[in-house]
C-alpha cells in the first residue's frame, strides 16, 4: 500500500479529506502537523464543553491507497483544484506490509497463575512447568487470566483443588470466557455449570471448554440449578450484593462461595450484604482487589 501525506491549513482539511475519499483512498487520517513541537495545539475542551477550535492551524493529512498509481493520480488531480491553495504534498511512500496477526499475538504471552498452573494462548507451546494448563485465546468475553480478580479465583481453585483432590459440583456464575469453570475442571471438578447474562460469553465458554476437552453445561443464569460444592462469582460488588440470596442458596452444606470483582474498600458492605446467609472473609488480595470467601 501507499501513503500520500499532505499539509493543509485548518480551513481546507474537510475539502481535502472528502476529495481524497472520492479518489479511492482506503483511509484518511488528520493530525496536528506541529505535534511534538512548541506550536502543538491541544484541541480538547473541558468535560462537557465544546472543543475550543475545530482543527489545527496546520494539519497533516494522510491518505492510504492500494496502488502507487492511485496515489500519483490523486496527487495530480488535487494539485489543480481551487481548494488546494495553501495545501502542499509532502510525500508518496510505500507502506511496508506488517504481519498484524503475529504482532497482535505477540502481545498475549502465557500467564502463570501458580508455578505449575498456566493460561496459554493456542499459538504458544505450554511452558515445561505447566502441569495444569488452560488453552485460551483472547476473545469477546472477559477472562484471559491477566486480571487480578480472575487470577485470585484461579489461585483459590488451584490451592483447594490440590489440597482436597476434588472440587465436586461447581457453579461459575458470570462465566465470561469460562476460564474459572475450565480451571475448576483442570483441578478435578466433574459436574460444572457455567452461566452468564451475556449470550456471547456463553458461546465463548462452550468454545473454550471444547478446546480444553472440558465437559460442562453453559447457559443463561436460569441454567444454575440446585446446590454446588463450589460457587464461583467474579462479577462486581453491586451485582454481587443483589445476587447475595441467590448465590448463597446455591452453596451446598460444607460447600464454598468464592467471589471476586470487589475492591478493598468494599469489604464491609459485602460482609453486611451476605451476613444473613454466610460469613464472608478476605482470602486473597491483588492490586487493590480482594477475594472474599465463605463456607456453609
Ligand atoms: C468480570 S467478568 C468475569 C469473567 C470470568 N468469570 C473471570 O473470572 O474472568 C463478569 C461476567 O459476569 C457477567 N455478569 C454480569 N452480571 C451478571 C449477572 N447478574 N448474572 C450473571 N452474569 C453476570 C458478565 O456478562 C461477565 O461475563
| Total beta strand runs | 14
Gross geometry: elongated
Q: Classify the oligomer.
A: single chain
Low-confidence runs of at least 5 consecutive residues: none
Spell out which ligands are present.
S-adenosylmethionine
- Arrangement of strands in the largest sheet: 10-9-8-11-12-14-13
- The assigned CATH architecture of the largest domain is 3-Layer(aba) Sandwich
How does this model look, in words?
- The chain is α/β, with parallel strands linked by helices and 296 residues long.
- The chain folds into 2 domains: 2-97, Alpha-Beta Plaits (2-Layer Sandwich); 110-295, 3-Layer(aba) Sandwich (Rossmann fold).
- The chain is 29% helix and 29% strand.
- The protein is built from 9 helices and 14 strands.
- It has helices at residues 13-22, 68-79, 100-106, 148-164, 179-186, 199-211, 237-242, 244-249, 267-274, and strands at 2-9, 27-32, 58-65, 88-94, 111-114, 117-120, 132-135, 169-173, 191-195, 217-219, 228-234, 251-263, 281-286, 289-295.
- The strands form 3 sheets. Strands 10-9-8-11-12-14-13 form a 7-stranded mixed β-sheet, sandwiched between helices. A 4-stranded antiparallel β-sheet has the order 2-3-1-4, with helices on one face. A 3-stranded mixed β-sheet has the order 5-6-7, covered by helices on one side.
- Helix 5 links the parallel strand 8 (169-173) and strand 9 (191-195).
- Helix 4 packs parallel to helix 5 (179-186).
- The longest helix has 17 residues, at 148-164.
- The radius of gyration is 27 Å and the shape is elongated.
- S-adenosyl-L-methionine binds at residues 150, 174, 196, 234.
- Pfam families: PrmA.
- It comes from Diaphorobacter ruginosibacter.
- GO terms for molecular function: protein-lysine N-methyltransferase activity.
Amino acid at each position: 500500500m501507499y501513503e500520500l501525506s499532505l499539509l493543509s491549513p485548518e480551513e481546507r482539511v474537510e475539502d481535502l479529506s472528502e476529495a481524497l475519499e472520492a479518489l479511492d483512498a482506503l483511509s484518511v487520517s488528520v493530525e496536528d502537523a506541529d505535534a511534538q513541537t512548541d506550536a502543538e495545539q491541544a484541541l480538547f475542551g473541558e468535560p462537557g464543553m465544546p472543543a475550543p477550535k475545530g482543527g489545527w492551524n496546520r494539519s497533516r493529512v494522510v491518505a492510504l491507497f492500494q496502488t502507487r498509481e492511485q496515489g500519483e493520480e490523486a496527487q495530480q488531480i488535487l494539485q489543480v483544484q481551487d481548494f488546494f491553495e495553501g495545501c502542499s504534498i509532502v510525500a508518496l511512500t510505500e507502506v511496508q506490509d506488517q504481519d498484524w496477526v503475529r504482532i497482535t499475538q505477540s502481545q498475549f504471552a502465557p500467564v502463570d497463575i501458580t508455578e505449575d498452573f498456566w493460561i496459554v494462548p493456542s499459538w504458544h507451546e505450554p511452558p515445561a512447568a505447566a502441569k495444569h494448563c488452560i488453552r485460551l485465546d483472547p476473545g469477546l468475553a472477559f477472562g484471559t487470566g491477566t486480571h487480578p480478580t480472575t487470577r485470585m479465583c484461579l489461585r483459590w481453585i488451584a490451592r483447594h483443588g490440590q489440597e482436597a483432590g476434588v472440587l465436586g459440583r461447581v457453579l461459575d456464575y458470570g462465566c465470561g470466557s469460562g476460564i474459572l469453570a475450565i480451571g475448576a475442571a483442570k483441578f478435578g471438578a466433574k459436574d460444572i455449570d457455567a452461566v452468564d447474562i451475556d449470550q456471547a460469553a456463553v458461546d465463548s465458554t462452550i468454545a473454550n471448554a471444547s478446546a480444553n476437552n472440558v465437559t460442562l453445561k453453559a447457559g443463561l443464569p436460569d441454567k444454575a440449578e440446585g446446590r454446588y460444592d463450589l460457587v464461583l462469582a467474579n462479577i462486581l460488588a453491586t451485582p454481587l450484593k443483589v445476587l447475595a440470596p441467590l448465590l448463597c442458596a446455591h452453596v451446598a452444606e460444607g460447600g464454598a462461595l468464592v467471589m471476586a470483582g470487589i475492591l478493598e474498600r468494599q469489604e464491609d458492605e459485602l460482609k453486611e450484604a451476605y451476613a444473613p446467609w454466610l460469613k464472608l472473609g478476605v482470602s486473597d488480595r491483588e492490586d487493590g482487589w480482594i477475594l472474599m470467601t465463605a463456607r456453609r
